[in-house]
From TrEMBL:
InterPro entries: Transposase_8, Trp_repressor/repl_initiator, WH-like_DNA-bd_sf. GO terms for molecular function: sequence-specific DNA binding; transposase activity. Signal peptide: none annotated. It holds the Pfam family HTH_Tnp_1. GO terms for biological process: DNA transposition. SUPFAM superfamilies: TrpR-like (SSF48295). This is Transposase and inactivated derivatives.
Length: 102
């Protein structure tokens, strides 16, 4: 049995398949044959559609705040602080900072 290469389906195709499964006029086996997919994949997309459908009628679309990675922000602050300290020390030694002794 030859393995088929991995396929990436567009969101529009996934929605089309999930809506066809939601209609219920054909069996999963028939849909799998029609769309050349595994029935488990169709069931998964149908479940995702049902989970996300409530978001369509949400009063505040897009109100979800993006998650902020505090650890990476602290690391970046530390890195920039070190760079600042290094550069100010180097400029001070070179006498290029205002008020530096010559």
């Amino acid at each position: 049995m030859t393995r088929r290469p991995r396929r990436n389906h567009s969101p529009a195709f996934k929605a089309k398949v999930a809506l066809a499964a939601l209609k219920g006029d054909r069996t999963m086996s028939e849909l799998a044959t029609q769309f050349d997919l595994h029935p488990n994949q169709i069931k998964q997309w149908k479940d995702q559609l049902l989970e996300g459908v409530a978001g369509v009628f949400d009063d505040k679309p897009g109100s979800k705040e993006p998650e902020i990675d505090i650890t990476s922000l602290h690391a970046k602050i530390g890195q920039l602080t070190l760079e600042n300290d290094f550069l100010s020390g180097a400029l001070d030694k070179a006498g290029l900072l205002p008020g530096a002794k010559k």
